[in-house]
Design a protein that fits this description.
Length: about 950
């Protein structure tokens, strides 16, 4: 699922091919070739948008190349397309440089239509390039009436055992069918309330896990579509499914931990299946085999299956070939049909399905006391294990999962809290050995403690299966500093572990909720690592489905009632604005803005009402929520920033983002309106939270004894903090002079604090960017490179291979400083430094949405780092920036995609020494030299690969 990043030789080969060998009848004169054709962000997907959005990227060997026009043709068959008979849509030659977010504008789409499409582009001289290769998309089931399938279930709740955990077995379903004649095409449309695995003729369908994904099942459920033409045959066929409770009926979050009256069954009690196999015969006939009461059901080897608590499997209860034709299901009973909810939508899954990313071999197997064995998989991750074991019938292997070991080598599971996270396998005693992988649970772990092996297992007994939402890799970052490289890899692993259908906070403990604060603090960082457009297209629906009756966005989404007092919080709820904005800015996606505009407007109104029309949140404005004031600068390690001051900054930030988003969708009046609100908030903030010199302050006495404020209100609040200045600068809440002063205070505060950061979740993401923005890149680098507590380096030198929830989650030689329940070793919030690594160290910043324009302004470290190389595959193509310092020479290589414009800031103390490919800039017409300022020579250029050097 990785983007294939076209390398230069590859481009050249394509170019040569296109230039010299392409069929001359097409009258191709330009080398501009569209590649990576996608629909709704995906290659050849199934979609249900009425007007799917198309995109492509362009390749060319010509510097400064761009598109002046394009033509899209869409046909209902490849033959028609090849014959230039675009029966669905022919856009004709359309001028413009746009290559993405282009809405299909042809004949109305109907369910099941397969569309074949191509595009060609005209280059800067007005010459057409070749047609692209053909891509497809397929329409899903657009109307509820297309669904013939019933919701079927088998109520096994009474079989649930256990005092603490009530876990019933997973029901199996099967249906045999006779397919009449030669089959042309077969599609399986399938979903469940709960999780499902579907099989046809003994074979698992698809590569996806945890389908159909988590939504507010009262409002909508997603389905998957599989092309199963190759899996069915004329004659007898069998369909089978196993269904488990999943997010629908299983345990969720910390409900059990905090004694919530409801701990499971948040959406329903009985997991249900809905599936239909649609057959198109060669002779033109059609047939649909759909779930109904005639499907047989039973329960067998899957004794328990729960996301948080694990899976128990008794291989002695296996059915054999239960999903193959001919299986004797006489003891199975008919399914029960359950009513549908009229208001529940059923839609195509818009995200990236969870899939296997990689397998991890055990690094070591260590015998422990009591005949237990400890497996080290070498990496903390989210997923499961595949167990391979040989033994006697009835032997029971029990697997416990931990992220870390105690200094004495024992597995640490305390931080799982009430997530039981135990998998159990009961052997059937197969002589050749037996292999088992659980289907409906996952864990966050590096270590597995196994009991029940009768003979010493080898490393092959346990294999790690890494699961993640299959977001295609988009970026990479490498420096000449191993610690920073490790930090970057830790960030990537943490994102991988937590982008799991929704952006979870952590994969291990009884939580795994998409906390909105974490999501908004990290989203920008995430964009650099992976293409998260589909992932957030999905989650933004969850977030808006969970918007509260008072229009506040929630603390987490989906938002089952795991704690009554979980309502909203400043810094968390703003996810409803910050995340759509980031998706818009990164991918040029204006649809998300339009889609959620009324919700966002309502939320801004909520914020305004909450400020009592004063445009500032004075002390104690959020006393009514729990914890008081909200989560504030969660897990900060220094002076406590008043939650209301921070909330005011966030309010201003949201107003400015609303103004920009309004403009992007052509709502100019609203844009002016929110700009005015932004200005009012800035003024009100200054009036209330700054003294005569502009220094930030708060009325600490107003908070009384600070009791009830989760961020240690009892130790008192102070406006003059790193977090307050960092955010005010980051959010453009200050005038230029005031901003500079704030930057200087920020540096003073860091120096006063022993050159250490003191920020929490909300302060951290803004900290380094704010330092850089006020000319203090040197301070930013100092914090980045520190290895003292609290710092990223401190985690790395203490052995981290993921980002930890707390800076001192573990200290070598000392153990767990915070070995309470809240000590996750896979928590991405502090990974938000990625935004600075790409945006400042490598220097890549988006300009016009979708990186249509961008800047590259690398910040050169004075020590500790001598080179930084970053790649980023934008929706407009591959961008690269790589700088290196060698003595007095700084080199900077940049790759600018076709059809984009970059402003590159070449670091130099002497602009006269700047060369590109060893030649003076003047001699290169592709490069427009702008000005020399603040130690950078600004140049502007179009596509190509540029090698700059400067002397310093
Ligand atoms: C989660 C956080 C979350 C927080 C709310 C924690 O338990 O793991 O990441 O944002 O609660 O403050």
């Amino acid at each position: 699922m990785k983007f294939v990043q076209p390398t230069t030789p590859y481009l050249i080969v394509i170019t040569l091919f296109v230039t010299f060998f392409y069929h001359p009848s097409l009258a191709v004169t330009a080398d501009l070739k569209p590649v990576n054709l996608r629909t709704e962000y995906k290659p050849n997907p199934v979609v249900d948008a009425a007007k799917p959005r198309l995109s492509w990227e362009l390749t060319s060997a010509v510097r400064g190349q761009l598109q002046t026009a394009y033509q899209i043709r869409v046909a209902s068959s490849p033959e028609l397309l090849a014959a230039d008979k675009a029966d669905l849509w022919n856009s004709a030659k359309t001028s413009g440089s746009v290559t993405n977010q282009i809405e299909y504008a042809g004949k109305p789409m109907t369910s099941r239509t397969v569309c074949f499409w191509q595009v060609r582009s005209w280059d800067k001289t007005g010459q057409p390039g070749p047609w692209s290769s053909t891509a497809t998309w397929e329409m899903g089931l657009l109307n509820k009436a297309d669904w013939k399938a019933d919701w079927i279930g088998n109520d096994l709740t009474a079989l649930g055992k256990g005092n603490v955990y009530h876990l019933p077995p997973a029901p199996f379903f099967r249906k045999e069918t006779q397919l009449k004649t030669a089959i042309k095409r077969a599609r399986l449309y399938v979903t469940s309330l709960g999780l499902y695995e579907f099989q046809i003729n003994g074979k698992r369908v698809g590569k996806d896990h945890f389908t159909p994904g988590w939504t507010d099942y009262n409002k909508r459920v997603y389905y998957q579509t599989y092309d199963v033409t190759a899996d069915v045959k004329t004659g007898k066929n069998a369909l089978g499914a196993i269904v488990s409770e999943g997010w629908y009926a299983g345990y969720l979050g910390y409900a059990l931990l905090i004694g919530n009256p409801v701990v499971k069954n948040f959406y329903g009690d009985v997991p249900l299946l809905k599936a239909q196999l649609e057959i198109d015969y060669v002779n033109g006939e059609k047939e649909t085999i759909a779930t109904d009461q005639s499907w047989k059901t039973s329960h067998g080897p899957v004794l328990e299956a729960d996301i948080l608590n694990g899976e128990t499997y008794n291989a002695n209860l296996e059915f054999g070939d239960w999903s193959k034709p001919g299986f004797a299901d006489v003891n199975w009973k008919n399914s029960t049909v359950y009513p549908d909810k009229a208001e529940r939508k059923i839609e195509v899954y818009p995200g990236n399905q969870i899939q296997v990313f990689q397998e991890l071999k055990a690094k070591t197997v260590t015998p422990k006391a009591d005949g237990k064995y400890l497996f080290d998989l070498g990496q903390n991750f989210a997923g499961v294990v595949r167990l391979h074991v040989k033994g006697n019938k009835g032997d029971t292997i029990r697997l416990r999962f931990g992220e870390m070991l105690f200094p004495n080598g024992a597995i640490m599971t305390e931080n799982l809290r009430k997530a039981r996270a135990i998998d159990t396998y009961i052997l059937k005693g197969n002589k050749e050995g037996e292999t088992w992988t659980p289907k409906f649970t996952y864990h966050g772990f590096q270590y597995v403690e196994a009991s029940g092996f009768k003979t010493a297992p080898g490393p092959d007994a346990i294999t790690g299966i890494v699961l993640t939402s299959a977001t295609p890799q988009a970026g990479s970052l490498e420096t000449d500093n191993p610690m920073i490289n490790k930090l970057y890899q830790n960030i990537v692993w943490t994102q991988r572990s937590n982008y799991f259908d929704i952006p979870t906070d952590c994969p291990q403990r009884d939580e795994r909720l998409a906390w909105t604060g974490d999501a908004q603090a990290y989203i920008k960082s995430a964009t650099f690592n992976n293409d998260i457009a589909p992932f957030f297209t999905k989650w933004l629906v969850d977030l808006n489905d969970a918007q509260r009756a008072n229009h506040a966005y929630p603390l987490y989404a989906p938002a089952p009632n795991v704690r009554k007092t979980d309502t909203y919080s400043p810094g968390w709820s703003e996810s409803g604005i910050v995340c759509p904005y980031t998706i818009y800015k990164t991918y040029g996606d204006t649809r998300v803005i339009r889609q959620f505009w009324p919700n966002m407007v309502a939320y801004l109104k909520f914020m305004e009402d909450k400020s009592k029309g004063e445009y500032v949140y004075k002390e104690r404005s959020f006393e009514d929520i729990s914890p008081k004031g909200g989560y504030g600068d969660w897990l900060s390690v220094g002076k406590k920033t008043p939650p209301d001051l921070l909330a005011t900054l966030y309010y201003g930030y949201c107003a400015s983002l609303m103004s920009e988003m309004a403009k992007a969708i052509g709502k100019s009046e609203e844009s002016v309106y929110y700009e005015a609100i932004f200005n009012k908030i800035k003024q009100a903030f200054l009036n209330h939270y700054t003294d005569k010199t502009g220094q930030f302050k708060t009325d600490n006495a107003a908070y009384g004894d600070g009791e009830g404020y989760v961020i240690e209100g009892k130790s008192g609040f102070d406006g003059h903090t790193q977090t307050a200045y960092a955010n005010a600068i980051y959010m453009h809440m200050l005038t230029p002079e005031h901003r500079q002063k704030a930057g200087n205070w920020l540096v003073d505060l860091i120096r006063e604090n022993d050159n250490k950061l003191a920020t929490g979740f909300l302060g951290l993401k803004a900290l380094l960017p704010a330092l850089s923005a006020t000319g203090h890149a040197k301070e930013a680098y100092r914090l980045l490179l520190s290895t003292e507590y609290p710092s990223w380096g401190f985690e790395v030198i203490n052995g981290a291979n993921t980002i930890w929830e707390r800076w001192n989650s573990y200290i070598k030689g000392k153990g767990f400083e915070n070995n309470s329940g809240m000590n996750s070793f896979n928590h991405y919030a502090f990974g938000s430094v990625n935004e600075w690594l790409f945006g400042n160290a490598a220097g890549l910043r988006v300009g016009e949405a979708g990186y249509k324009t961008f800047t590259i302004r690398p910040e050169i470290a004075t020590e500790g780092i001598g080179s930084v190389k970053a790649t980023y595959h934008s929706i407009n193509g591959l961008i690269e920036t790589a700088w290196k310092k060698e003595g007095a020479t700084i080199s900077l290589k940049t790759t600018i995609p076709v059809n984009t414009t970059a402003t590159v800031f070449i670091p130099t103390t002497n602009p006269a020494t700047v060369l590109e490919s060893a030649k003076a800039l003047k001699t290169n017409p592709a490069i427009r030299v702008k000005e020399y300022k603040d130690g950078y020579l600004h140049v502007e250029m179009g596509s190509g690969i540029y090698q700059f050097t400067s002397q310093n």
